[in-house]
């Protein structure tokens, strides 16, 4: 009898899932037959989310920030299925997809990311825009085009949440719309970018002030209407006219994960060991937004793209190690710093002893993210485009 091929099933094709799949395909499998690696995502394209803002300003094109999985996985041996996960049976080690396909696994990687909840405030589901996926970006782009083409004197935009996403959106949109724009950044706490280094926070405040973005601190969103937003500040509620509301607050795990019989924290994140394995299920690995993870020093790691990017390397290694009888490595998070786009040709960067803002930080951010794009082939395509685009623009003038 021939031995059945080991199957690794990876659910979610974001930073955690895609990079785990790519790394697994590159590891040496000489001592044991190479396993079948299956990647499942509901979209047909990977999204390099830190560049999603540049889509709204036309600085980057969709193919640069959202390449198809089939293109990225070409020649790797990784099989891709575009599908929604409907059920995970941890006892039978089976994954059921909505298209009817059933996948039996030997190792499972949970990297489905998080979802932005819109049901926290009345009217948000009907009237607020999300900004998390390429589909969200396209919907927002369409709404902006309609407003820009209209004869309205001012375009009034409210952005809920003054974290990274809210601040970056406010700066990019202010640069896009210019004088016609009226922007309001709404934050329930007493400062913007609560977890950010002081240098970056100050650079962001300056960028927002320069662009005339009004900041509502200690302000709660009560409800959202078709052309209004109701805000509560110091127990007083005001209804303010708006043309567009963008919601960037909160994250929660997908329902298919929440129903799993695995240990979870109060936010529904799955508790893992330092080797990124799920408690009582060493064949399951969890990473990214849906994992409650402590690193090798016992410190809680944040749910950021940078963390998922690093966890992918460890997940791939530990799956490989578990199948080739080698020791597993505890996750060691390296805080490499923080970068934010603060408008067109402007950014801020802190990390590894460096503090930069302005156009130099913008170039550095671009180069760091170019290096982090998922494959060398895509890095070269995008890098070549960046070099050639200015020349074409100059010649066409």
Question: Can you lay out the helices and strands and say which pair or pack?
Answer:
Layout: E1 7-11, H1 15-26, E2 36-41, H2 52-56, H3 62-65, H4 69-72, E3 79-82, E4 85-89, E5 94-97, E6 102-104, E7 107-110, H5 124-127, E8 128-130, H6 134-149, E9 155-160, H7 164-177, E10 181-186, H8 198-210, E11 214-216, E12 219-224, E13 228-233, E14 236-241, E15 244-247, H9 255-258, E16 270-271, E17 277-278, E18 281-286, E19 291-292, H10 305-323, E20 338-341, E21 347-351, E22 354-358, H11 359-372, H12 376-396
Parallel strand pairs: 1-2, 1-7, 2-3, 7-18, 8-15, 9-10, 9-15, 10-11, 16-19
Antiparallel strand pairs: 4-5, 5-6, 12-13, 13-14, 17-18, 20-21, 21-22
Helix pairs in contact: 1-10
Shape: globular
Question: What's the gyration radius in Å?
Answer: 22 Å
* Order of the strands making up the biggest sheet: 3-2-1-7-18-17
Structural category? alpha/beta
Query: Please, what is the average pLDDT?
Result: 93
How many extended strands? 22
Helical residues, percent? 25-40%
Specify the number of helices.
12
Low-confidence stretches: none
Q: Roughly what fraction of the amino acids lie in strands?
A: 15-25%
Alpha-carbon distance between the two ends:
69 Å
């Amino acid at each position: 009898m021939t031995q059945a091929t080991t199957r690794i099933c990876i659910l979610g094709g974001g930073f955690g899932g895609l990079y785990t799949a790519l790394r697994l395909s590159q590891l040496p499998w000489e001592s044991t037959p190479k396993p079948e690696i299956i990647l499942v995502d509901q979209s047909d394209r990977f999204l390099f989310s830190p560049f999603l803002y540049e889509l709204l300003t036309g600085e980057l094109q969709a193919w640069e920030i959202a390449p198809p999985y089939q293109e990225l996985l070409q020649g790797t041996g990784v099989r891709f299925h575009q599908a929604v996960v409907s059920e995970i049976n941890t006892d039978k080690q089976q994954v059921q997809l909505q298209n009817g396909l059933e996948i039996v696994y030997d190792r499972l990687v949970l990297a489905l990311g998080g979802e932005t909840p819109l049901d926290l405030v009345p009217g948000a589901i009907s009237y607020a825009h999300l900004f998390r996926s390429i589909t969200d970006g396209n919907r927002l782009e369409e709404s902006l085009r309609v407003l820009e083409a209209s004869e309205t004197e001012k375009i009034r935009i409210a952005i809920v949440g003054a974290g990274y996403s809210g601040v970056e959106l406010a700066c990019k949109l202010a640069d896009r719309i210019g004088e016609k724009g009226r922007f309001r950044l709404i934050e329930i706490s007493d400062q913007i970018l609560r977890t950010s280094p002081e240098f970056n926070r100050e650079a962001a405040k300056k960028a927002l002030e320069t662009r005339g973005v009004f900041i509502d601190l200690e302000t709660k969103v009560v409800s959202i209407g078709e052309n209004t937003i109701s805000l509560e500040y110091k127990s007083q509620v005001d209804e303010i006219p708006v043309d567009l509301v963008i919601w960037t607050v909160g994250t929660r795990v997908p329902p298919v994960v929440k129903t799993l019989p695995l240990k979870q924290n109060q936010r529904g994140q799955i508790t893992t060991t330092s080797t990124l394995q799920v408690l009582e299920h060493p064949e399951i690995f969890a990473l990214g937004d849906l994992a409650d993870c402590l690193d090798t020093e016992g410190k809680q790691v944040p749910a950021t793209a940078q963390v998922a990017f690093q966890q992918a390397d460890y997940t791939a290694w530990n799956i490989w190690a578990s199948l080739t009888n080698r020791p597993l490595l505890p996750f060691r998070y390296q805080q490499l710093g923080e970068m934010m786009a603060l408008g067109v040709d402007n950014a801020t960067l802190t990390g590894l002893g460096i503090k930069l803002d302005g156009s130099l930080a913008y170039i550095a951010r671009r180069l760091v993210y170019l290096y982090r794009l998922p494959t060398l082939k895509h890095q070269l395509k995008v890098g070549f485009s960046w070099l050639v685009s200015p020349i074409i623009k100059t010649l066409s003038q």
